[in-house]
# Entry
Amino acid sequence: MEAVAFLVETIFKLYLMVVMLRLWLQLAQADFYNPLSQFVVKVTHPVVGPLRRIIPSIGKFDTATFVFALVIALANVWVIAWLKGFMILDVLWLLKSALLMLVVEGVQLIIYVLIIRAILSWVSQGNNPLEFLFHQLTEPMIAPIRRIIPPIGGLDLSPMILIIFLLFIMRLF
# Structure
């Protein structure tokens, strides 16, 4: 049963990351014609599209996508607890666990994108569409750090400093 719980949780978390990536792409106003952006939109649109008609956005923040991410996190917590033999009746605990999952998965998503961006910067010649998209997503977070700690000898430490800070935030939760 533990293997089934692992598989179900992995599927939930992967899809949750795709939904959260859609939210992040919209907040960053990233290029939606990028192949990765198109994949994210096509995978999430069957649910987010109808939800947008019911739940309006608040400025740049796509409330419908956030609500969908929260529903996925709630379902994940409930299904995993059920698979492990627990029956959760405390709605407040369920909501708190789902919100915590959103924070942790969001931080992990940022870390993954930062690592992929760093690896691409070593091997790419700068004309990769994925690298450009990741630059759009992460530059608003890295630029303030880069202003404080400029590149040293051609080596930019700002992504590493941001990753360490994000890991610290995850440890707090």
